[in-house]
Design brief:
rod-shaped
């Protein structure tokens, strides 16, 4: 009987039980907010990287290595701003950014186009399906795309 009195207050409610039940929900909400903020930051960086690559390619279109240099510009933005897993760890399947496959630079009509993809690792397996991902991998693809008009001189 004494244990039951500990769990109930004067009004007959059980604040300890309510706290125990709501605490995990509160932790999940806080963690989700932090994760969403990080994803928003990565999205901003990826979009800026795509703009840098497309801008360079549009300004230097016609030069021999303009496409490669545009890819390098995009890579510099991503690597300088986001915590990127090195290519060496590709065997461990924890690669977040691979400049060979995650940066696409091309000419699209009279526009220079650049697409940059970052693989944001999710802490819960198969979570991407629940939060809008289209595949069953353990990461969420965040993609930035940019178009710039190719200059007349290029």
């Amino acid at each position: 009987m004494r244990i039951c009195k500990f769990y109930k207050d004067k009004n007959g409610s059980a604040p300890v039980v309510a706290t125990v039940l709501l605490f995990p929900l509160l932790i999940v909400l806080i963690y989700s907010g932090v994760m969403y903020g990080q994803m928003a930051d990565v999205s901003s960086v990826v979009e800026e990287a795509a703009r840098a690559g497309a801008r360079y390619y549009a300004a230097h279109f016609g030069e021999k290595k303009a496409k490669d240099e545009a890819g390098k510009k995009a890579k510099e933005v991503v690597v300088g701003s986001v915590n990127v897993t090195p290519v060496k760890e590709i065997e461990k399947k924890k690669l977040t950014f691979n400049e060979k496959t995650d940066i696409k630079v091309k000419k699209d009509g009279s526009y220079a186009y650049c697409e940059v993809t970052y693989h944001y690792p999710t802490p819960v397996k198969k979570l991407t399906r629940l939060i809008g991902g289209n595949d069953l991998t353990d990461d969420m693809k965040i993609t930035g795309k940019a178009y710039f008009k190719i200059s007349e001189g290029g």
